[in-house]
Amino acid sequence: MGFHGAGGGNWFAFIRYDEERDRPRVSRALLGRVIGYARPYAGQAGLVIALIVVISLLELVPPLLYRDLIDRALPDRDATRLGWLALGMIGIPLLVGLAGVAQRYLNARVGEGIIYDLRCALYAHMQRMSLRFFTDTRTGEMMSRLNNDVVGAQRAVTGTLVSIITNLVSLLSTLAIMISLEWRLTLLGVVILPLFVLPARRVGRILRQLVRQQMTENAEMNALMNETLNVSGALLVKLFGREPDEVTRFGERARQVRDIGVRQALVGRWFFMGLSLAGALGTALVFWVGGHLVLRGTFTVGTIIAFGSYLNQLYGPLAALTNARVDFATSMVSFERVFEVLDLPLEIQDRPGAVQLQQADGRVCFENVSFRYSGTGGPVGLEDIPRFGRPGRGTAPYLAGEKPVVVEGEPRYALQDVSFEIRPGQLVALVGPSGAGKTTITYLLPRLYDPTEGCVTLDGHDLRDVQLASLALLMGMVTQETYLFHDTVRANLLFAKPDATQAEMEAACRAANIHELIAEMPQGYDTVVGERGYRLSGGEKQRVSIARVILKNPRVLVLDEATSHLDSHSEWLIQEALERVMVGRTSLVIAHRLSTVLSADCILVLDGGRLVEQGTHAQLLARNGLYADLYHTQFRAQEGQGTRAGSPGGSP
Q: Which H, E and C letters describe 187-241, residue by residue?
């Protein structure tokens, strides 16, 4: 790799400048964190190092056996000595092999243990991230961090670090015995060191860049696969006939990964070919000078043969260690990427001294609540990490239908100065045009987000002062988009209450009007529902999700009761199930049906993020405001339909 148009001095100056500009840096803090994960395995790591020393010392013995064979056993025709040397030539490799197996076992235990701890910490941290993190991050990128990057970190522990220690011990021990044999030849063998150092530093920088680029491209490819190979993505691709386009798009991603891999392999191959030539040059010099010493009688033939063997053991570790710092820094890239995620701040977490609510009456208050989906001042998703090679976005996507209008770079409030109270056991309906803030309110109550201003309270406790675990037990939510795991019906129900009995599950399913259908399935409650529950119809999935909430038995219920996409019979079954589950609970419902609006104790009317009206159906109609407009345009058309469909939820 030449640098044309410059003299030799300029060439070396360029190398120094280039190294300083992109010198791989391993900070003390990064090393401290890595060592912190390794500390529980210190004893096993110590045994690994001890075995490395033993193996390195044992590997120094065979050349001495060769020397003794050539210089003494054969010239003296000593058959006994020859037999012992032959046994040594078998026994030493056997001992090295056994020690190598033990070292590999312990090394794997340490490496896998560290990666287990790291992967669990990463997954646990992601689980604690707020909803904003998941709306701002592609699932494929999270999978890449949990898989590719963690595996890369494992290679750093089990491969790079062990390799550096092994090479260092081997180099020092080999140099020691070579000097004891002939110090002049040792210096001659080491004089070619610059031929190792200069290309190693240059190529090491290139390889480090390629490693990080390869990780980024792999993450992009994984994200694309995750988006298009899940059920929803595959369905969307097929409905729009975009299979060829997606195959082409994936091919472009895969091509970038391939090209980087090829370039990385080629750079490494040229590099090691150069090192091999440098090693051959050093060996030739040593044999040439050593041969002359043998001819003069200064050196024995056995000694020169042993010295040649030690040269091979010297140049390998020497070549590796000349680039050890770059290799080490490159291997730390995976740890850096993992720690980038672990360092993302937790937006929603327990405050110090947060209370644990064992039970609640269910009185909910919104006190002057304002909220906007703007950034928190720091990264909230993986794509906000500047080191990723693209600028951080700084703001999360907005909930469907509620994207604020951006004015002079600042998004407007999704909610502004909203205040209301829900008394224990009341049913409150949320109505309003699209984008009014209804979904935002339902996301603030289970503390998926925190208010920008004001507070939300439960029985007088600010939700931010309540432990998240106890809040999750008291809150139940049925969203418009039902999600079921690719598992059995039983497993999906037990997600709400792991210790529930069969009788409790069946009672919940009967209340949700789904037990008879489950009982008719081939394996009953042990029937697998498929990816995201796609083996069930929309109405069946919703009823399973309602049964899951009933099994949880929450004190406060949050519902998005959208049923407009279902047939009349499914809609009636779901509506009847919802009426049962709401009895005796504090319920906040985004109302899409007239029956819910009519049965509500209070109706909250939202528009543009503000609470513009509240009251009963009759009171709001009498005001002839926004609710009256919504009633005449949205709800009134449902009058009579419910009765014709057999629904009890028609007009009173």
A: HHHHCCHHHHHHHHHHHHHHHHHHHHHHHHHHHHHHHHHHHHHCHHHHHHHHHCC
Q: Which two tokens stand for residue 254?
A: 């895969």
User: By C-alpha distance, which of 198, 159, 163 is closest to 14?
Assistant: 198
Q: Compute φ and ψ for 371, nearest 5 degrees.
A: -155, 140
pLDDT tens for 592-641 read 777 778 888 999 999 999 999 999 999 999 999 899 988 888 766 665 55
Pairing of strands 427-431, 602-607: parallel
CA-CA distances (angstroms) from residue 436 to 401, 405, 604, 606? Answer: 8, 12, 11, 5
The residues near 578 (Cβ < 8 Å, ≥ 6 apart) are: 478, 546, 559, 561, 596
Q: Scan for tokens 């009963």, then name that residue.
A: 616
Q: How far apart are CA 147 and CA 119, in angstroms?
A: 8
Rg for the chain, CA atoms, rounded: 35
* Secondary structure of 374-412 as H, E, C letters: CCCCCCCCHHHCHHHCCCCCCCCCCCCCCCCCEECCEEC
> Cβ distance 140 to 227 under 8 Å?
yes
Q: What's the CATH fold of domain 364-375+409-644? A: Rossmann fold (3.40.50)
Identify the CATH number of the domain defined by range 28-342: 1.20.1560.10
The C-alpha angle 116, 491, 347, rounded to 5 degrees, equals 55
Domain boundaries, the chain: 28-342, 364-375+409-644
pLDDT above 70: percentage of residues in the chain: 80
Whole-angstrom distance, CA of residue 181 vs CA of residue 320: 24
Instruction: Determine the average pLDDT of the residues in 125-143.
Output: 79
